[in-house]
Amino acid sequence: MPIVVAAIAVVLLVAGVCWVLLFPETVESLRQAIAKRLGGFRRRAGQVGDRVGHGATRVRSGVREEVGAVHGALRRHWLILVVAAALLLIPPIVIFVTRQTVVLEDFRGDDLAESSSMVAQLLRGERLTPPPPPPPEVFTTAEVRRLRPEIVTADRKWGQIDPDLQQRVLAIYEVMRRQYGYEMVLIEGYRSPQRQAELMAGGKATRAGAWQSCHQYGLGVDSAPIRDGKLQWDMEDPWTRRGYFLYGELAEQASLDWGGNWRSIKDYVHVEMTDRCRAARVAKREELSRQG
Fold first, then answer.
1. Please, where are the H alpha helices in the chain?
2. Going by C-beta distance under 8 Å and a sequence separation of 6 or more, which residues neighbour residue 54?
3. Residue ranges matching CATH 3.30.1380.10 in the chain
4. Contact at 8 Å (CB) between 123 and 171?
5. Rounded average pLDDT over 107-113
6. What is the pTM of this model?
7. What DSSP string describes 242-287?
8. What kind and span of H or E run contains 183?
9. 266-275 pLDDT tens trace
10. 109-291 — its CATH code?
11. DSSP letter (8 states) at residue 164
């Protein structure tokens, strides 16, 4: 802020000095006009009409004289004009060059849905690291085997997930924990095309075949809240339902698509980068087509 105030002061000062240097005749004419105007008030009211008529003539003549004077001044003082223009441009150039915008290289402000949100602030900060995984038995309980048997053998390696998606999901986890008190757990990241085909054949976990899911490209992940050492799935439970909907809202803030918004099948655990995934699927189809 101080540099802006100083720049404005410099601009005004330079403008005033340049005006006096470039147009001294105008300053003198202004002084004379004011003096004449003050003198006119002392005359009798009966002379007002004559004074107005003569004044109009003088104004027209004065305008022509001033235009000629300005033209002549510009020709005589062109060097001063160039220097003045340079001085006027220096302050804004200094402000533009010295200002700084610090944004993490991998994240652009226009990629973020809500720059004021905590998710956006985390993405603009230092790189986030995955939390320690829960004990393996969390994914092999009798309840998990009954309700979500596919996650028993799921891949949960963060390194297999696209780095951009990884940071966005970790930011969501952090906000869920800090602001809402939910601990989130990665239940599946990368999924091979062979596993995808097997899950589709089972008819429960997915309707997408091999190379049709964002999981194959590292652009989709599944997560769930954990409470008392158990993964939570029951959408009839108010705490669990609130957690998944918060997860979906934060996903939107991180420019991700949430499976809970899908029409055909609700996949509350899933988030993905749909646009990049769509492009990856197109590229894969073209590759497979070339291979015959």
1. 2-22, 24-40, 48-76, 78-98, 118-124, 142-147, 163-180, 193-202, 238-253, 274-291
2. none
3. 109-291
4. yes
5. 40
6. 0.61
7. HHHHHHHHHHHHTT-EEGGG-SSS--TTEEE-HHHHHHHHHHHHHH
8. strand 183-188
9. 999 999 999 9
10. 3.30.1380.10
11. H
